Amino acid sequence: MKNVLVFPCGAEIGLEIHNALKYSKDFNLFGGSSVDDHGKYVYKNYIDNIPFIDDENLLDCLNDIIEKYDIDLIYPSHDDVVLKLSELKEDLNAQIIVSDEKTCDICRSKRKTYEFFKDEKFTPKVYDIKKESFYDDNESKLEEISKGLEFPIFLKPDIGQGAKGVAIANSLDDLKHHFNENPDLVPVEYLPYEEYTIDCFSSKGELLYCEKRERIRIKDGISVNATTIETEDEVREIAEIINSKLSFDGAWFFQLKKDRNHEYKLLEIAPRIAGTMSLHRNTGINFPLLTLYTHLGIDVSIISNRNKLTIDRALTNRFNYEIDYQRVYLDFDDTVFFKGKINTFLMMFLYQCVNENKEIILITKHAKDIEETLRDLKIDIHLFDEIIMLSKEDNKIDFMDNELPSIFIDDSFSERLSVADNLNIPVFDLDAVESLIDWKL
Predict the structure, then answer these.
(1) Which residues does 178 contact at the CB level (< 8 Å), separation at least 6?
(2) Torsion of CA 395, 396, 397, 398, to 10 degrees
(3) How confident is the model over 58-78, as pLDDT tens digits?
């Protein structure tokens, strides 16, 4: 088993790498971050306070971490970190999961990318406009600038991601304003149609996978609704050209939009995992796992389900409950058995308790034979350390104690109130069980 440090680990890309690798028997995950982030709620092995990439102590700190935790591989998950670690990889005492430095450098800059592919028909028109062009406001100079411009013009930062800092200029005045705000903007032709991401995988120079997804809904630059769609030969040809001219080692992606003539034009290329690669991962293409294997020199092959798949993402809750308990008391009707079905989310929590050697005591006023009901539901009675059957007249608190640190789960408010008042132990309704789940792997 190899130890893998994912850095940084708490943003969407680092979380996708975790989701892709957490069940792998070949890799043990460590999450590292420079800031206090969501990774601490997800990664069982979490390392904080790693220096930022512009810190002169970064190299020494990473090598200390490598030695302390016996790290075999470092998996960078942010564009700037990808580039920085590609520059430092000869001095780091672990294998760095990046493509070569030239590829990472070109992909990190829109200008360098467009210049590198300037002779390709899929490269968008880039206007030669600089901030200095607007210093002289005389009419003839402005008229000269306007020659060859076709408004609207799309402006994007040379180095950036997630649609941050982009703008649209509809006039020379707009251009002047935006260039005064950010002189590093890259002015390109406006592409009015849908945006697509093409997820790719290359090994030993060969493009093994290339499939398109449509970015249907975007939030803060992140695709939160996307669907797999058919990949045309034209898109595959673009992927083959990019793959032949750059050197990718593992997963990468590029983005396209159609121009006014419905021709595909390149937005950007990234030699890394994309957060929404989870879409194709669930069709069978585990990009982070395949990337690790190919870096370790293991031959890989691709298998994918061809059924259409759509992903929709929203904020997810993760909790760190500072509560100590060794015993769980819980109700059955409308708790374990809910709306005529097994409460599968609660069952996940109960098996978490099994893994953590916590007692589970079922305390119920179930009207039928509880063991027979459990058998009918295919719930093993041995899941419970004890089953306490009560009559309707019994009070649950008379059959419970707080000798061990305990919690109580019941859908009934009156039962929870009675237990809280009389036994002074934490009580939970069904909607609060999510706060007890430990997602760290």
Answers:
(1) 155, 167, 169, 185
(2) 60
(3) 999 999 999 999 999 999 999
| Residue 110 covered by a domain | no
Helix axes 101-108, 79-88, angle to 10 degrees: 150
Report, as ranges of residue numbers, the positions in the chain whose pLDDT lies below 70: 131-145, 162-163
Of 393, 333, 330, residue with least CA distance to 362 = 330
CB-CB contact of 256 with 235 (8 Å): yes
CATH code: domain of residue 283: 3.30.470.20
In the block, residue with structure tokens 């939160």: 224
For 155, the domain range is 125-189
Under 8 Å CB-to-CB from 354, ≥6 apart: which residues? 360, 383
Tell me, yes or no, whether 106 lies in a domain: no
For residue 11, being part of any structural domain is answered with yes
- Which pTM does this prediction carry? 0.90
DSSP for residue 71: -
Q: Which two tokens stand for residue 248?
A: 């990718």
Residue with tokens 């304003």: 177
In this structure, the answer to whether residues 331 and 234 fall within a common structural domain is no
Given a contact cutoff of 8 angstroms between Cβ atoms, the answer to whether 241 and 174 are in contact is no
Give the CATH number, domain containing residue 404.
3.40.50.1000
The answer to whether residues 338 and 421 belong to one domain is yes
Q: Do 306 and 202 reside in the same domain of the chain?
A: yes
- Which helix (H) or strand (E) segment is 106 a member of? helix 101-108
